Amino acid sequence: GLQGGARAAKPQKELSPEEQQELRRKINSRERKRMQDLNVAMDALREVMVPYESHAPGAPPGRRLSKISTLVLARNYILLLGSSLQEMRRLLGEVSIGMGVNAGPVPRLLFAGGWPLIAGPGQLLLT
């Protein structure tokens, strides 16, 4: 089988210098497009993470987050949302049991306090 993303070997004809140059141009163009798409996606993620930027450990104020900082911050935020959701479910279970009723839809009042319940994703540690 194929390993490490290697492609099946095709018999290759010798490329002329012009063909080699054209092939290299196409490869470079695809790589440039891939990097542009990645940068656009990272910028979109940064826009979403702006409210939590100040919570990023070691991030100088007013400076754009690096790609790795953006990804770590986004990961931490996702973990934060998951733990907040888990905690809310636990609390709803306790409230329902205390009232002697089955857990039903979440009362709208519980959402009135605003999110997140914890200060920010920068507080979560990587595991």
UniProtKB/TrEMBL annotation:
One GO MF term attached to the UniProt entry: E-box binding
Biased composition (Basic and acidic residues): 11-32
SMART domains in the cross-refs: HLH
Domain BHLH: start-end pairs: 22-81
Organism (species): Poecilia formosa (Amazon molly)
Renumbered residue ranges of the record's region Disordered: 1-32
Source organism superkingdom: Eukaryota
PROSITE patterns: BHLH (PS50888)
Keywords from the named record: DNA-binding, Nucleus, Transcription, Transcription regulation
Keyword Cytoplasm: no
Example of a GO biological process term: axon development
Pfam families per UniProt: HLH
PANTHER family: BASIC HELIX-LOOP-HELIX PROTEIN NEUROGENIN-RELATED, BHLH TRANSCRIPTION FACTOR 3
Classification via InterPro entries: bHLH_dom, bHLH_transcription_factors, HLH_DNA-bd_sf
Protein name per its UniProtKB record: Oligodendrocyte transcription factor 1
Gene Ontology CC, one term: nucleus
